[in-house]
Design a protein that fits this description.
Layout: H1 33-43, E1 52-55, E2 63-64, E3 74-76, E4 79-80, H2 104-108, E5 109-112, H3 116-124, E6 134-136, H4 147-150, H5 152-163, E7 167-171, H6 180-187, E8 192-197, H7 203-209, H8 216-228, E9 233-240, H9 249-259, E10 264-268, H10 275-286, H11 291-301, H12 313-316, H13 320-335
Parallel strand pairs: 1-5, 3-6, 6-7, 7-8, 8-9, 9-10
Antiparallel strand pairs: 2-3, 4-5
Helix pairs in contact: 3-5, 8-9, 9-13
Length: 362
């Protein structure tokens, strides 16, 4: 991937570029400077980058995986792309398969799946379906801003609550509290677990790293509200970025413990495919004084590369720095009583939904 010249920062957006996904055969598109000047003279200054949503009609909604280093084998993504605009998001490269940029397109040209709940009901009703924890928010956030209008995540959880199907949610949005009635109901039967992601407590850093995600303090308040409602909730310090956010580990753990989080987890930053050049451009725009140091540390963790895609090591990294991070997280977790196991999520209460107008008896 050829380096792309960073654009002037766009307020409320994370990616400094809109590079094309050349690994999928898409050619880089470059706007001609003379054309831009002429357009501005005729039409005025460029309009702000607006978010668009395209309806997607998939045939199935449950995605399956066989990855040995994650704790679930099925997930649902109500949306493609994510308006939160987190520059480090490892899901950005998926936009390349739509011939769209993993850069600004990923956070502004979104896809919604309004039939998700209907499809889910059909899949859960199939003979032979065996329940196991289903994850939401592991690729793109189910509680990104457009959930307010579309409500697809809630419709999916309604089906899961009705069928007593186990659920795992990962989000960095307090919008999850809109569904606290459903989650509290499921929690009474040990059917749900929630992880709230917090990358930094510094609002100035958050505004550039994850520009349209809720303020870190709102996420801490969401942890408290979920815990008070009886929903098992942990803090996920994700991702930890060397020389950018790693110094905040203990502060985040302390704040999360005060909010009532029962456990802590973390993920080291990953830079697959187009995420690496996007992150380099972000460093050039926002942290030019540390850019070389950050990338040197990233490559030291990833065996001399920007990214290590191999199972297990992609999560843990290599060398002294990952070992130090692991020690710090474990020590802080012990100090705050957040080193206990997450309550087991039950799968034995599942009851299939209606199929062809008749309830399943067995």
């Amino acid at each position: 991937m050829e380096p792309t010249k960073p654009l002037p920062p766009i307020t409320g957006r994370g990616a400094p570029t809109n590079l094309r996904p050349t690994r999928t055969g898409s050619a880089e598109r470059v706007l001609d400077g003379d054309w831009i000047d002429a357009a501005e003279e005729i039409d005025g200054a460029a309009t702000p980058l607006r978010t668009t949503v395209t309806i997607e009609r998939p045939k199935t909604i449950i995605s399956r995986n066989q990855s040995p280093d994650i704790g679930f084998d099925r997930s649902i993504n109500p949306y493609r792309g994510c308006e939160h605009g987190c520059i480090y998001c490892f899901a950005r490269p998926t936009h390349a398969f739509h011939d769209l940029s993993p850069g600004l397109d990923f956070e502004s040209k979104l896809f919604a799946k309004p039939d998700a709940a209907k499809l889910l009901r059909t899949e859960l009703a199939k003979r032979g379906y065996t329940a196991a924890p289903l994850a939401i928010g592991t690729n793109t956030d189910g509680y990104q801003p457009i959930e307010r209008e579309w409500g697809i995540t809630r419709s999916v959880i309604e089906v899961l609550a009705e069928t007593r199907h186990p659920l795992i949610i990962t989000t960095k949005s307090d919008r999850i509290l809109h569904d606290i009635d459903l989650l509290a109901d499921m929690a009474r039967d040990n059917l749900v677990g929630v992880a709230i992601s917090i990358t930094t407590l510094d609002p100035a850093v958050a505004r550039t790293l994850e520009p349209r995600a809720p303020h870190p303090r709102r996420r801490l308040a969401a942890i408290r509200a979920l815990i008070d409602a009886g929903v098992p909730t942990q803090v996920n310090i994700s991702p930890i970025i060397p020389a950018i956010t790693d110094h905040e580990i203990e502060a985040i753990m302390t704040a999360a413990a005060e909010a009532g989080a029962i456990r802590a987890s973390y993920i080291l930053m990953r830079l697959p495919h187009e995420v690496a050049p996007l992150f380099r451009a972000w460093l050039a725009a926002h942290c030019p004084d540390r850019a070389d140091k950050v990338m040197h540390m990233v490559q030291d963790i990833r065996g001399g590369r920007d990214n290590d895609p191999n199972f297990f090591s992609r999560m843990k990294g290599h060398g002294v720095w990952p070992q130090l991070i692991r020690t710090r997280v474990k020590r802080a977790a012990r100090e705050h009583g957040m080193d206990r196991s997450f309550p087991p999520i039950r799968s034995d209460l599942f009851r299939p939904p209606e199929r062809d107008g008749q309830m399943e008896l067995f």
